[in-house]
Design a protein that fits this description.
One of its GO terms (biological process) is glutathione metabolic process. This is glutathione transferase. Homodimer. Pfam families: GST_C, GST_N. Belongs to the GST superfamily. Theta family. The longest helix has 23 residues. Strands 2-1-3-4 form a four-stranded mixed β-sheet, with helices on both faces. By secondary structure, it is of the alpha+beta class. The protein has two domains: 97 residues, Glutaredoxin; 159 residues, Glutathione S-transferase Yfyf (Class Pi), Chain A, domain 2, CATH 1.20.1050.10. The radius of gyration is 18 Å and the shape is globular. The relative contact order is 0.14. Helix 1 packs parallel to helix 3, helix 1 crosses helix 8 and helix 9 crosses helix 10. The structure holds glutathione (GSH).
């Protein structure tokens, strides 16, 4: 059995893996998991309740449960070997398929720059950028109510701080985070930063340095592939048609409403 990747291109880490695999010509079987429809979030047992329950839903969603006990995407299956966590999957693919050195350089200082970015990324860009989609699209879909604009403003302020640090600390006046070539750090960053764009918060608009970097990343992976991977999140109409499992809706709507009070 060949390499299988369990992905939903609505998810930013999934898009980084998809783009990485496709732009490096890594052969894989795309196992499509529909995050909200297949109720990936909803059917997980409460913490401490013991073994994972088998999940209802389409076959790929069952598959993800077997591949990744946390039932999250992205997930990888390579023969009997299974793996979760976006960074671990990207590194596994880069090593197994011996992808060009610039993705995760053998030079230890350049590699350390990638590691440094990835460590910072999770608590900053990753923690802030996707909130825009929750606020503008997902929470209203779950609760049936739009959110007050102050909520979005709050999120945008947090994101602005992260973007300022991204530009000043990591990008500086370089073409890419590690210098003149693209690395996993740029890929992991761009997929997150496209999330707000899809819901109408174009964070590149007033940030020319960031926009130039985005264009270089698009060119490095190939524009066609880049836009194909982002097709769904760049189409707001498709976003508002996301199918949400009714059970999941029932479960999460009151929690989300409470969180937002
Ligand atoms: N740390 C994991 C996060 C994976 C994750 O949270 N995936 C989300 C989609 S972006 C998911 O599957 N959510 C469903 C769930 O939490 O059950 C990674 O980077 O791969």
């Amino acid at each position: 059995m060949g390499l299988e990747l369990y992905l939903d291109l609505l998810s930013q880490p999934c898009r980084s893996i998809y783009i990485f695999a496709r732009s490096n010509n890594i052969p894989f079987e795309f196992k499509h998991v529909e995050l909200f429809k297949d109720s990936v979030l909803g059917k997980r047992p409460a913490a401490g309740s013991g073994a994972e329950q088998p999940r209802a839903g389409p076959s790929n969603s069952q598959g993800t449960g077997k591949v990744n006990l946390l039932k999250k995407v992205p997930a990888l299956k390579d023969g009997d070997f299974t793996l979760a966590e976006c960074t671990a999957i990207l590194l596994y693919l880069s090593r197994k398929y011996n992808t060009p050195d610039h993705w995760y350089p053998s030079d230890i200082q350049k590699r350390a720059r990638v590691d440094e970015y990835l460590s910072w990324h999770h608590a900053n860009i990753r923690a802030n950028a996707p909130k825009t989609m929750w606020i503008k699209v997902l929470i209203p879909l779950f609760t049936g109510q739009p959110l007050p604009s102050e909520k979005l403003q709050e999120v945008m302020e947090g994101l602005s701080t992260s973007l300022k640090q991204f530009e000043e600390r990591f990008l500086q006046d370089k073409a890419f985070i590690i210098g003149s070539e693209i690395s996993l750090a740029d890929l992991v960053a761009i997929v997150e930063l496209m999330q707000p764009v899809g819901v109408g918060c174009d964070i590149f608009e007033d940030r020319p340095r960031l926009l130039e970097w985005r264009r270089r990343v698009e060119d490095a992976v190939g524009k066609e592939l880049f836009f194909q991977a982002h097709e769904m999140i760049l189409n707001i109409k498709e976003l508002s048609n996301i199918q949400i499992d009714p059970q999941l809706k029932e479960q999460l709507a009151p929690v989300l409403m409470k969180m937002l009070k």
